[in-house]
Amino acid sequence: MKKLLALLLSFVMIFTFTACSSGNAPAEPNEPGGKEQPASTEPIKIGFFAPITSPAASADGLSAENSAKLAVKLINEAGGINGRKVELVSYDDGLDTTQAVSIAEKLTTKDGVVAVVSGSYSGPTRVAAPIIQNAGMVMVSAYAIHPDVVNAGDFIFSQSFPGKVQGRAGAEFAVKTLGAKRIAIIAVDLDFGTELGDSFKAHAEANGAEIVSYDKVAISDNEFTPIITKLKEKVKPDLIYTANYYAHAAEVVKQCRLQGLDVPILGTEGADSWQFLLTAGDHAEGVYITTNMNRDDKNETVQQYIKRYREEYNLEPDMVGASTFDAFQVLFEAIRRVGTDPVAMRDAIASMTDFYTVTGNLIRYTNRGEAVKPVQIQRVENGQFHYFGEITDLNIITPDE
């Protein structure tokens, strides 16, 4: 009897082992042959930061924030991305690098975001970029121009062209189209002004123009009378290049007109703001700027953005807002193509070509993540920015690789 029981027990053990090891055993849901898991319906969280409360950046911060909200609203109205809604996780960096570091750490460790858009200037963006890079997360910078932003690594992209591109495009226009030979530069003493002013100077001199004056001004300065007086009475330039944000650019323009210094004035994307037009008033008439937004572009994407922005906020959109909106469009397209895996998203963005955005045709990204796109020349006519021309020469608009 004992031998018979032992034999039966052996058969039971062998059968049990075989059944558990066979291909007929139920597969786990996440294993090959298992039950397909339903697609996630959780919202896709995207991080965002901008200088919303900084006095020096109030218009730009507001414009960036408005466009971030509008981008998310429009994508959700269209059903989201692959059936998932998008959720904005937004922070105010106050134009403060310490706050930007803290924000980047929160976004990469606590907030559950899949990617980040910087709607801020170079200072906050360049300190946030290495933290986001080290986390293996994609960030698209809307308009920060300093090369250290993309130098942080291969997960970091810039939607606008870098300062060197815009500076030399401005010089190309000033020298070859406007015929300037004696140029004065007034630049804000920040990354923005230095990058634009220095690259403009180098390209203008390389093409035969003389830089007869180069003044740096602090962001806190608001008195430009002495500089304009010097230019009018002693320097006598035939063009002024102002690499400043809208408040400074407006004061430069006003002082030139009030003192009778009647020379062409060429600004940058820093002056591409409804605040510049409001502050400078009639004195802004005829001013040129380099920027990435063409209000007169007939493309439906551009005109729809302008229409919806006006409807939502009762304000005129600018390049800061348009660039921020486009940074989200790039992320949305990458997620639509490959999902939210960060490596796949990075590779999808890096391979984008001829992707039309509100700020024109994104020809491609360089191997450093900088956008290659035409530089727009806008001119103030009847109190509004309008198309005057564009720089499309690839030798000018392609960032150094």
Q: What attributes does this structure have?
A:
single chain; 401 residues; alpha/beta; Rossmann fold; 2 domains; 7-stranded mixed sheet; 5-stranded parallel sheet
- Derived structural class: alpha/beta
State the distance separating the first and last CA atoms. 86 Å
Rg of Cα set: 27 Å
Measured as a percent range, the helix fraction is 40-55%
* Main β-sheet, spatial strand arrangement: 7-6-8-9-10-14-15
Q: Using the 3D structure, state the CATH architecture of the largest domain.
A: 3-Layer(aba) Sandwich
What quaternary form is this?
A: single chain
> For this structure, what is the CATH class of the largest domain?
Alpha Beta
Low-confidence stretches: 1-37
Which fold name corresponds to the CATH topology of the largest domain? Answer: Rossmann fold
Q: Characterize the largest beta sheet: strand count, sense, and whether it forms a barrel.
A: 7 strands, mixed
- Overall pLDDT metric: 90
Order of helices and strands: HEHEHEHEHEHEHEHEHEHEHHHEEEEEH
Number of helices, counting only DSSP H or I runs of 4 residues or more: 14
Strand content: 15-25%
